[in-house]
Design a protein that fits this description.
Number of strands: 12
Largest sheet: 5 strands, mixed
Number of helices: 11
Strand order of the largest sheet: 2-1-3-11-4
Shape: globular
Radius of gyration: 28 Å
Structural class: alpha/beta
Distance between the termini: 92 Å
Oligomer: single chain
Strand content: 15-25%
Length: 304
Amino acid sequence: MSAQTQFFSTVFILKNLAMLVFVALCSSCVVAAEKSSSTTAVTPIKLWNGNKTESRQQYEREVLEAALKATNASHGNWKLQEDLTDYPLAADEASVFRSKGFDIFGTVAGNTKLANEKKILIPLPLMKGLLGYRILIIREADKEKFAAIKSAQQLQQLRMGIPSTWADAELFRHNGYKVEEKGSFDDLFTRLENNEFDYVTFGANEVTGVFNERAVKSGKLMVESSLLVFYPFPLVFYVNPDKKTLAERVTKGLQTISGNGELDKIFNRYFATDLTAVNLPSRRMIQLSNPILPAEMADFNPSL
C-alpha cells in the first residue's frame, strides 16, 4: 500500500470513528433530555370544588394536595386547577365529568345525581364520617321546643329545610322526615327565619362556621345544643372515568397519608376545635339509615 493510499484509509477510518462518537453523544443527549422531560413534566388536574361550604372546599383541596404530593415520586409533578363554580341544577352537577371536563371532585358517597353517570369511586373516606354527624340550626324562639325532643318520631313532626339538589334530602325523606327542598344555600337562613320550615342541619365539622358566616347576623337563629342526628355519610372523591391513572394515584396517595398520620393531622387542624364546641358526647342521638351508600361502602363505620 502506498503512503498516499494509507493516508486516505486512515482519514476514512477516523471520519467513521468521529461519526460514531457523534451519534453516540447525540443519543445520550436525547435520552437525557427525555429523562429530564419526564421528571419535570407537569400534569394538570382539574378539581371542581363548588356546591359546598368554604371550610369543606379548603379541607378537600388540602387532602387532595397531600395525596398528590405523597405520590410525586411514583407519578410525577402536578398542578391543581381548582374551579369553585356553584351548579345549583342537578343536571349541571351530574355532568361535571361528561361535559364540563373536570377530573375529580369531592362529594358524599352514593350522590344520587351521579347515579346514571360514568365515574370512578375512590371508596376511602376523607373525613372519618364526620359529615354524617348533623347539628341543627333553629330559630332561637323554638329553643325549648327542640330541647324537649326525645325521639325520632317527635323530630319527624317538624319540617327540615334544605337547598335544592343537596344529596341528603332524599335520605331524610327515606327515613320519614318532612323535607322542604327548594331555593339555594344563600337564601336558606332567610327562609328559616320566615318560618318556611323549622330547622336545617349541617355536619358537626361545618355548623359553627356556617352559622357564624351566614346565620348569626339577624340574631333570630341559634345552633341547637341538645340533639345530634346521625347517619353513615362518608365524604369521598369521584374521578373522571377517563382518568384511571389519576384514580390510582389518588387512591395510593390517600392510603399513604392515612397510614403515616398526615390525614389525621389535617383533620385535627381543621375540626378539633369545632368538635369540642358542639360537644357530641353530650347530645341525644337520633339515628337514620342511609339508602344511597354504594355497595363498596355498605359496611362503612365512622372512625371518630
